[in-house]
């Protein structure tokens, strides 16, 4: 049986790049790059539908078995997607065992239906995954988990609304096309000079919509001529089940002087204000100014952008830096890709004509304000919620799945690795942890540099039953018992670059205190 790792969205990956066939038993090592324990769904590509997954202790794990698709209607032969829900230690490694056998009690099959919208496309029958074909329908449909319900248009396959905590919120998506000026300066690599408001994207044929439903995740894949969108809803308690995973695979290589955008329209009364982050560190409020040209109202979005009113907040988390704007109340608009045929005389010397199929990944998080915090803060600062911080971390620090190559003779048995013996507070982030050079290069160093960031967050958003595996501690953090099997000898605060000590090394006190939004560096010595 061969194995390879699979991205969360299932698009933009070469499904045929599996490792060569090996013996029936294979090991996969999972690495969690976050400093908090996480519960996640991990997907792997295997070469047989007869697969059984065991934990390190030999306990059978439930799996969701799905097809791997090469197009809207064609499955990849002899490649299957296996999804496992697993709990991973903070900054640790976990081991899975995969066997080529079938267990009907733990293997849960996904159900698939195709909405062809009148298009005559061949759909080959598959013995493992029966596909229900719906030739023509305009009925809307919904996916749900224990936290929310997401409803989609039966015609377009795009998101229409979200229901959370018994309240329905309009949250619709649509694709747009920007052109460029016909005279004077035109859009290029550095300049965005549209020829007016964006026009709705109008494909030649209606989309093919594929709906996959299963116990661990359900998703809606909409195949248009130039873009494929996958909206996935995880059925997981905790952070991953509280937001929608959105992937857009864009291919505009046959366009001329066009730019594709994704618009989110909601019922949030945001008026002319929205918020973007500055390099993922702090949040900056922005205002739409009608007196300025349209292009002057777009801003960089390195990690997130959100709109809010007195009742709720919608956050768009992104895995890649893009341009964003809010041109009308309740809307967010993000540029997905650009194809421009001319140079804009700003130094590049050519147009943007080297486009590739580009995958953009997002998380949509809808939050409700608590009854005690109905009035929107009028100060010129804003912060994400703690859930929003965690969602961004899950999006940008995915679980890494590493199939283990078989060797002869067999290597020693693999074991899980838990480097932390204590839980890191939810609002602390380890920016860096590295060894310092020892005086004797032939010996390992006993000193390390630890750079910490305490995040600032908004307490006015609902935070009940979020399923966190960590808590906040009012800025206090005990480093003495943090690392498993290591005794902390001394702790010395230093400047950010470790050049200057900011206090004497303390062998007794290993508890630090940091204010919100503070970044601090410590030199630690293990005794």
Provide structural commentary.
Residues 143-346 form the Glycosyl hydrolase family 38 C-terminal domain. GO terms for molecular function: alpha-mannosidase activity; carbohydrate binding. The protein has 527 residues and is mainly β. Among the domains are: 138-384, Golgi alpha-mannosidase II, domain 4 (Beta-galactosidase, Chain A, domain 5, Distorted Sandwich); 428-462 and 469-526, Immunoglobulin-like (Sandwich). It is built from 1 helix and 36 strands. The chain has one helix at residues 386-396, and strands spanning 3-5, 25-31, 38-46, 52-54, 60-61, 63-69, 75-88, 93-99, 107-109, 111-115, 131-134, 141-144, 148-152, 159-164, 167-178, 199-200, 208-213, 217-223, 227-234, 244-250, 258-266, 273-278, 282-287, 299-301, 304-308, 312-318, 322-325, 331-339, 358-368, 400-403, 428-435, 447-454, 476-478, 488-494, 511-513, 519-526. The strands form 6 sheets. Strands 11-10-17-18-19-20-29-26-25-22-23 form an 11-stranded mixed beta sheet, with helices on one face. 35% of the residues are buried.
